[in-house]
Amino acid sequence: MKEVSNHRSHWKTIRIILAALIGGFLLSFLGFGLLWSGIPWHTQLIMILPFLLLSYGILRWSNGAMGLCAFIGIGAAPLGLLIMQFRDTNGSHLMTILIVTGWLIGICAGCYWGKLSQKSSVNSSKDVVSF
């Protein structure tokens, strides 16, 4: 019985990793499409929110495994590196680097938010038990 639950645990981890990789790639593809369509860069910084929500969801689904949030960044890396090669109207790479850095900030913020929410839920459950 113990082998079956351990086997299921490995498959759950593999599904979480695949979801993080695919989610990171799809969100970066969406960001690439927004950049390609000519949306202003400050509007593209709204892409922080989907990355934040994805990393929060992955962290909560994986029961607090912080390392699995890194797979979101790995999934977004190929198109993120490609986006950083583009130049803005002034010939600078600064805005595209800012957009990709915003994605990374969103991933880190989502992981931090997930950790905070887990700590608060553990503390509230301790309060209920001690009551």
Automatic annotation (TrEMBL):
Give the highest taxon in the source lineage: Bacteria
Transmembrane region(s): 16-35, 41-59, 66-86, 92-113
Question: What keywords appear on the UniProt entry?
Answer: Membrane, Transmembrane, Transmembrane helix
Task: State if Membrane is listed as a keyword.
Answer: yes
> Would you tell me the protein name for this molecule?
Lysophosphatidic acid receptor
Its ancestry begins with: Bacteria, Pseudomonadati, Pseudomonadota, Betaproteobacteria, Nitrosomonadales
